[in-house]
Amino acid sequence: MQHFRERAEALDAADPLAGFRARFAILNPDEVYLDGNSLGRAPHAGLERLESAARDAWAAGLVGSWKTGWYEAPLRVGDRLAPLVGAHAGEVAIADSTTVNLYKLAVAALRARPGRRRVVTDDLNFPSDLYALRSALDAAGGGELTVVPSQDGIHGSVEGLRAALGADTALLSLSHTAFKSGFVYPMDRLTAAAHAVGALTLWDLSHSVGALPVDLSGCGADLAVGCTYKYLNGGPGAPAFLFVRTDLQAQLENPIGGWFAQLEPFAFDLETKPTHDLRRFLVSTPPILSLSPIEAGIDLLLEAGMDRVRAKSVALTEFLIEMADAVLDPFGVIVASPRDPEQRGSHVSLRHPDAYAVCLALIEQESVVPDFRTPDNVRFGVTPLSTTFDELVRAVEGLARILEGETYHRGGRPSGVT
Ligand SMILES: *Cc1c(COP(=O)(O)O)cnc(C)c1O
Fold first, then answer.
1. Which pLDDT does position 340 carry in this prediction?
2. What is the structure's pLDDT at 409?
3. Which residues lie with the beta carbon below 6 Å from any ligand 1 atom?
4. Which residue, 170, 199, 215, 355, could crosslink 86 as a Cys pair with Cβ 3.0–4.6 Å?
5. For 22-73, how does the pLDDT look when each residue is reduced to its tens digit (9 = 90+)?
6. Helix, coil or strand: residue 288
7. How far, in Å, is the centroid of ligand 1 from the Cα of 206?
8. What is the residue with the minimal CA distance to atom 15 of ligand 1?
9. Ligand 1 centre from 99 Cα, in Å?
10. Which atom of ligand 1 is nearest to the CA of 98?
11. Within 10 A of 339 (CB to CB), how many other CB atoms are there?
12. pLDDT for res 286
């Protein structure tokens, strides 16, 4: 490991983004945190915004704060986020949760394609997305969800998806970056394939936004949703975002009516008159406190620049995979993420039969925080604004110690544990 340690030192010393680590509250510097793809660290500026939202806007401003920023917040923060996903102003809103937004947009897409009753997705997708897509089909009058199998549990099948698209397809909905393996789909090619059969596309960007550059406009994508508490560092339960391409906004209908979508919400009209723009995809009162830190995370990414973030992310995951091959392979650890960095997001899954026990041992014995993904994945997420090359060395060293000393408790995981 000595030469990896030396390389990590040199890489950290030359890292143009190294200064960003100090912008986060890191209360235990000895802990190696590799789960920022599940819950991102807290930026100092985010904590300040949260405190100010509570003290200045809520405690001091009370209801008057609706007139000094709260009402506009969902679209204002959406506009701020837009460049991270290649969207234009007026195409991104902060609202609800990822799953709820996915449901809203999937029903809207199905109703905009009457006569077409098929939604195409894949088995690498986040299960919640599949549940929501099935609910959307039910709400839109029934139909079929086609779940295209991946090639090998790691790489999605672009050809399989193409073959599944047809004249009866209303919607293609995929996670752009797969939550388990980290595989990244070619958004441009799949969007073109869906459009060629007259279907719409709905991308879940939860593991992409803030991790790699995304170009929704350049790809001609129709709809998208995503999380703000992962790579955007918005905090636990921070509301999600949704994207609707400008020319589709007036054509699609939000299946959940609510007063925040109305042209004149304060007219309290008993008839529904939604706006013709993005606002029509809002439902109700935004969760102002949980929305307030999101902008801080977005600003850090904009300041760093997504090209530099992506370059460091690739360097980190390449370094991690190289160490896994050299140091962990003898212990039966298998890299379960794409080896081609072009096809890989910002996390690496390592497969081991006792992955759950190994994850527990990593946390308890080595102060290394990965996450476990069933059935046998130890998932290491790298968040380029705060993750160092040194942390990856410490994670691999810790993992090697556990596997060599067999200091984990063999056997299955207790039921009900995530
Ligand atoms: C994290 C994640 C979600 C989370 O959904 P919630 O509605 O916020 O619970 C959804 N989709 C994907 C792909 C995710 O990675």
1. 98
2. 85
3. 97-99, 126, 128-129, 175, 179, 204, 206-207, 227, 240
4. 215
5. 999 999 999 999 999 999 999 999 999 999 999 999 999 999 999 999 999 9
6. helix
7. 6
8. 206
9. 6
10. 7
11. 12
12. 98
Quote the tokens at residue 1.
């490991």
Q: Which residues of the chain have pLDDT under 70?
A: 411-418
pTM for this model (two decimals):
0.97
| Burial group, residue 142, by CB count within 10 angstroms (0-12, 13-18, 19+) | exposed
- Dmax (CA) for the chain in angstroms is 71
The helix/strand/coil state of 325 is helix
**Residue at token pair 């109305």:** 262
Q: Hey, what are 281's tokens?
A: 């995809």
* Cis preceding linkage at 375, omega within 30: yes
Which structure tokens are listed for 59?
A: 């405690």
Tokens linked to 288: 């102002």
pLDDT of residue 412: 53
Closest of 50, 53, 47 to residue 25, by C-alpha: 47
Distance CA 128, CA 243 (A): 19
pLDDT at 284: 97
Atom of ligand 1 nearest to the CA of 101: 7
